[in-house]
Specification:
451 residues; alpha/beta; D-Maltodextrin-Binding Protein, domain 2; 2 domains; three-stranded antiparallel β-sheet; 20 helices; 12 strands
Amino acid sequence: MSRTTSLTTRRSVLGAGAAVGALGLASCVPPDSERAAGNGGGAGDDGAGSALAPDDTSLEGTEISILDDNTNLVFKEGLIETFQEETGIVVKNYEMANFNDLHDRFATAFAAQDASIDVVMTWAGWSAEFGQAGWLQELAPEAIPEDLIRPALDAVSWDSKVFGLPKFASVQTMFWNKEHYAAAGLDPDTVPENWDEFVEAAKATTVDGRYGYCCDIGNPAGAYQNFLRSLLLAGGELYDEDWTPQLDSEAGVEGLTKMVELLHLHKVMDPASLQITNASDLIEVFSQGRTSAVFNWPFQWASATAEGAATSAETTGNGLIPGITVRSASIDGSEGYAVSSFSQNKQAALKWLQFASGATAQKQIVEKEGWFPVSQTTLEDPATVEALPVVTTYEQATEYAVQRYGTPWSNELDQLLSVQVFRAMNQEAEPAEALKAAQEELLPIVDKYMG
């Protein structure tokens, strides 16, 4: 199948409403391969070419295996048992692995048509890459709950097809230490409303070896996310309407320049930011009072207000991320589950997806872990706001640009872009030079997929 027909056209895909971002075994799945054309086949009752819909099959005693990332402990700490009691399905194996290691494991298993894994964790980039390869089972409309919020559904979709169900929604906002702000003579209850105000606050709170700002640029995905957020804050877009990359656009250069300035000109960014590889590590830096501000996912609130933290609900501020040329913008980090096309237990696996996005699991994900819910019903529940006050900021954030740009080439983009981001951050190249190099490297990759 040709590249053009395998992924339709640039314009129609861009208009599909999919999200957008990560790297792998041997980069991504070649778009002109047999698997990428949807001909790889999938074991089980439903082939990769037919959408999976729930049926009335008895699933009592059916066994499934799940390979997850290490984000949501609530499943292992009780929800698996609840699922088994409610459905009669047995979770034979539930493994949690580091997110940074999962892509290659999935790619290896899928390439071998491994049927031992029924359910995999996914996000926008992997849904696009593995979905277009025919490795994730497409879901029929009747398998999808009606009240899912759009950003969460985007995390499991690509090219107008849904390849899974979300387990949590996530958008980055700003968290600041009110005690640090007050000690610096700043209003502890007021979030900076623009970039200049943010820089001044970061300068004022950089004292005694403690920095006013910290982030997580220490791996390819982190470098991509931090750059993308800065580009959006500068009013840019990562692609134009025909999927032509805009890495070296005026907004891209300005965004990366602001990142470099935080580290080298203003000296308010903790140099450790270049080694921090996971948002889970970043939350601890803030929660232990070792930095004054972070742009992070909603679970930062749960960590900052937990027993043993140096911060608390009273000393943690939350608000919109201040923009560079726009009021605000952010990136999406929603995740979900998908059924492997090679699973022999697709109906049972689908039950797990529906359980994870259902009310019982969502309540625990919100209240115990601090992630946003995936359903409008749970989002509007007063108990959600009570358990997670940052939901209010989330609703404000959605009034501005919130993107991730998950694509089949996300892994390749993460790799090549991170090299250039690090060159700029280490002052080995000017931001414009670094982004021009990344742009030139990305163009043929996008063309390879989009035709």
